[in-house]
Amino acid sequence: MVREDLVESFCRHAKAMGALTTKVKDVQRMKNEILEFLKPRGQRVAVAVSPLLKSADLEAALKEAGFEVETSGAWFAREADSGIVEFDLGVAETGTLVHDATDLYKRLASMLPLNCVAVLPANRIVRDMTQAFEYYLGQKTWPGYLALVTGPSRTADIERSLTIGVHGPECLLIVLVEEGEGSNAGDSL
Amino acid sequence: MPGTPFKARVRQALLNPTLRGALERFAADYVVAREQVFAGRDFEGLRTKIASIKSAAALQLRELGEEFARQVTLRGGKVFFARDAASAREYVLKVAKEHGVTRVVKSKSFATEEIQLNEYLAEHGIVSYETDLAEWILQLMPGERPSHMVMPAIHLPKEEVAKVFSRHKGRPVEPDIKTMVRIAREELRDKFLTAGLGITGANIAVAETGTIILFTNEGNARLATTLPPVHIAVVGYEKLVPRIKDVLPILEALPRSGTAQPITSYVTMITGPVPVGGVEGTALKEFHVVLLDNGRLEMARDPVFREALQCIRCAACTNVCPVFQLVSGQVYGFVYSGGIGSILTAFFNSVEQAADPQSLCIGCRRCTEVCPAKINIPDLVLELRKRIAREHGMPFSYRLALRGVVAKPKVMQGVLALGKKLQRPVTGGQPFIRSLPGPFKGWTEGRSLPALSSRPLRERIRDLEKAPVEPRLTAAFYAGCVIDYVYPEIGEAIFRVLQGAGVQVRFPLDQGCCGAPALYTGDIETALKLARWNIEVLERASTGVIITACPTCAVALKHKLPSLLSGEPTWYERALDIAAKVKDFNELVQEMEVSFPGFSTGERIKITYHDSCHYKRHLGLAQVAREVLKRHKGVELVEMQESDRCCGFGGSYTLKYPEISQALLERKLRRILESGARIVVTDCPGCLVQLRGGLDKTSSPVLAKHTAEILAAGQDLR
Ligand code: SF4
Ligand code: SF4
Hints:
- The complex is a heterodimer.
- By secondary structure, chain A is α/β, with parallel strands linked by helices.
- Chain A is built from 6 helices and 12 strands.
- Chain A has helices spanning 3-16, 27-38, 51-55, 58-64, 104-111, 129-137; strands at 20-24, 44-47, 68-70, 82-86, 89-91, 96-100, 115-121, 125-126, 145-149, 154-155, 163-164, 171-177.
- In chain A, the strands form 3 sheets. Chain A has a 6-stranded parallel β-sheet, with helices on both faces.
- Chain B is an alpha/beta fold.
- In chain B, 52% of the residues lie in helices and 13% in strands.
- In chain B, the strands form 6 sheets. A 6-stranded parallel β-sheet of chain B has the order 1-12-7-4-2-3, sandwiched between helices.
- Chain B is elongated, with a radius of gyration of 29 Å.
- The model of chain B has no long low-confidence stretch (mean pLDDT 91).
- Chains A and B meet through helix 5, helix 6, strand 9 and strand 10 of A and helix 2, helix 8, helix 10, helix 11 and helix 12 of B.
- The site of one iron/sulfur cluster (SF4) has 14 residues of chain B, from helix 14.
């Protein structure tokens, strides 16, 4: 599959699983998109810092726009309205986001708040789970906490009626960035 | 034994319309959704892969466990090998005590239910909170049983849940699902943040890397493994696979099979301890795995039951099981429900506790079509039934009937001849027994029983056995008890059709019962006796082909005889020779390309076809039957919905669980009527007993016929 097809397929499947997706040209537009999304969703934002987010200087942009930003601490993300996390890979076949979430802040930012912004370089979308596994098998050690995330947190436990936002986020926005490298972007992709 | 608590539970479930409604709606949606989510995928290939990974793993569980433990330890975690439930519980308590834990958060886990961990911890002053929404709701309802393995609260309407929440909160809660989910989020979030210990199970454990894998939609397992400073995973040995790549096919099949989702919202793969907080988020969590044996290693040594260790607990088998849909997991009891649950219960709990649950399986084989681990559940249930009968004996009435009568063909012929005379008071000369007195009343509740024919087939063959002028083939006809004694007209039809096609048909008079009734109730001794008897009789007939028109008999002759006699080389060879000659009536008609001109009146009759479970899923002849019917010019075949859903006959099952059998029949009759056909056709005389009985009881104008009867009818059908 060529890159555009992968991106298209990824977005289609992610949407089918209840995620919002948006494609942006560069990190500047990424910041705008994120600010737009966060505006109606509360003041407190937890950012799991990663090279891409750092290089975009997202923290400063958020503060400038009047958000309260957390990046660490014992109470990280507990009271936050939204969390922002960069992911390692997207899996086109199911619209799944994958990351090595051994880092505690990555986990907390994507688990605790009601809203989650997932940032993913568009060139990091693979075809299927086999390729995703191969990517991590190519690393020295298998990650301590590998998380596959597909759409928002959901339950159908009461009358099989689909309800989102049970223990994790109720809203998942995936921002695909076309230019700019991923944090640990191997050339292996 | 109509009064046992188990049967009372069955009856209670059948009388609960909310439960039944919820399960039936789910089952109907599930079939469609499952089909869609597997569309374009090679399901057979996928499940072959899973079966081969898991069956190989089952042969080396101990080694895999050791390798897994080595890897977990290398990564800084701890593994405890728990021989039984008690040692697993004690270990968890010890770890909890070491850390001064008073509150535990749990994400849904069968293994912890199996070892009754919550109760045990509670006895020691530790409170466990289930965090899966459905499990939490059930926890707030003491005494309530889970109704489904994957969706334990599927039977509760939202109004009921609102009542539970109102009681719990001490204030009125509206029956609005979104609101209730929010209440659960807030209340459980607090538990996550304050618990000293998180306990989970695992869906998969990987030896190569020491990884455990958890599938959830709600995200509760993520929180339970991230927030508390200690994590214990209680993992059954059967979850082990050798390599990380072995996860892929399971990942593909499990959510698709369980809830017809392409993937669950979260799949979490944990390898060793990870940071849990402290200064700059660097302090490491404590990570323990309790590797639970509790009967699994014994199961792995068992050449027959080892297969059940392939189970990935997706619940697809119960989702399609017609019996489960009627009674739900609440009836099966214990932790694991459905047919597979009864097998697991036999090893993880005890054979005694599995005795009632296993008896619910009607053997329709529907589950074998969807099991992603390719487990032959009904055959394992039969094996279990055998062992129960061997170790605990059968009810006296069964033993008398099977050993004293069925096992001795000559005696049986005499008893049936006598029965023919004695039945007059209840039949009044009609072909049906419409009601029986006293304790047998339930047997004729929604279905009339057939009367024995006044002239069994064996008494008619002198007139029937005429040789065609130049026979193309000589065949023996193995009629089986139902055709011989109840519906001899089917036998006559077969003689007529085959003779018309140039076949010389012989009827070996000494043929005995095929042994299926004995086999399906676990009486191997009787089944063996009959197997040898029939082999001798059929050898003496010395024909190249043996015709059957009853799938139960066909399965018995073709498959069960060799497997029964596999321990006795000479008998085994003889059984194989006989098995090779057995051919279903339709198969022969199709092979000989017999054609049927249609009715002399020129009319076309609408018929619908009911797939007998054994005929379709054991013999694989569903298509052949339809093609054969189309050879008859006077027939217009219209398909009914759910044509391959069990009609509820199942031999002695009908007598053991008349209410279940009848509920299945009612649904079948509804589908038949909806099809608008005048005749329902099937290839199983047992199904005919059930269908004709139900049609008679409801005074339906629809007729039920065997395919042979349709083909033999040149004039008209009555
Ligand atoms: S064979 Fe039929 S009745 Fe038995 S477990 Fe499977 S689906 Fe249920
Ligand atoms: S027996 Fe098969 S279908 Fe049933 S839960 Fe196990 S894997 Fe799934």
